Amino acid sequence: MAGSSGAAALSANLAEKVQEKIPNLLLRQGYGLTECSVAALVAGLEWKVGSVGTLLPNTEAKIIDLKTGQPLGVNQEGELCIRGPQIMKGYLNNPEATKNTIDNEGWLHTGDVGRYDEDQHFWLVDRVKELIKYKGFQVPPAELENVLLSHPAVTDAAVIGLPDQAAGEIPRAYVVPVPGSSVTVDDIEKFVSERVAPYKKLRGGVVFTDRIPKSQSGKILRRELKHHAMDELKAKL
Question: Which PANTHER family does this chain map to (predicted)?
Fold first, then answer.
C-alpha cells in the first residue's frame, strides 16, 4: 500500500504517527506549486522522514539568503529557488508579477523557506511571508508547530506572530489538547522553551482551542487566528 502527501508539509512527527497506525503503508511526500507545473521534488524509495524528497530529472534548485540573495550551503536555511523545463513562462497579462517571481537567470523564487542536506534531500521550513520577525531573528511558525505536535497531550497546533513594540513580533501558539488531558499552558510553554532557541520561545502565550482553522487542502488559516488575536488585543485596550 502506498500513500503520498502534498499541499502542506507533512511533519516528521505526523508521518511517524501515520506509520504506526498503518505499518505497511509506503508513505511519501513531494513538493511543487502551480508555477512549476505541479512538481519539482519527489521522495523516492530512500525517503528521509519529514523531507520533501529529491529533485526531479532536469530540475535544479538552490537555497538563497533571505537578505542578500546569495546561495547558501548544506543545512543552511533560506528561500528555495527552482529552475527547469516545468517552470511557467509567466503570469498572464502580469509582467510585473512575473518579474518579481522569476529572475533574469530563470530561477523561480518560490517564497518557501527550506534547506537541503548532504544527500540532496530537501526540507521545507515555512513560507517567507509567514516568518515571525523577533528582534531581527526569523522564527518559522512551522518549526514551533512541529515541536508542539511532539507533545503527547497535543493533537493539533498553530503558531502566529503578534505585534510587539519592543520586539517587532512575538510567537503565540494555539493548541488543541488531547480530550481529557490535564496539560496546562505552563506545561506547554516549558516544553517548547526546553527545545528551541531563546528567541523562539512562545512569548505571545499559549491559547487552548477546540480546533485549528484550516483550508480544504489542510493548510492552516493563520489569517483567521491573527484576526482573532487582534480582536482580543483591541478588547483589552
Answer: AMP-BINDING DOMAIN-CONTAINING PROTEIN-RELATED, LONG-CHAIN-FATTY-ACID--COA LIGASE
Same domain, 156 and 118: no
Return the pLDDT at 6. 67
Last residue of a domain, one of 129, 149, 172: 129
Question: What is the Cα–Cα distance from 171 to 175, expressed in whole angstroms?
Answer: 13
Q: Are 52 and 33 in contact (CB under 8 A)?
A: no
Residue where one domain finishes, among candidates 129, 147, 162: 129
Domain that holds residue 177: 131-236
* Same domain? 113 vs 161: no
Tell me: the pLDDT tens digits for 73-91? 999 999 999 999 999 999 9
* pLDDT at residue 191 tops 90: yes
* Residue 108: CATH number of its domain: 2.30.38.10
Residue 148 three-state SS: helix
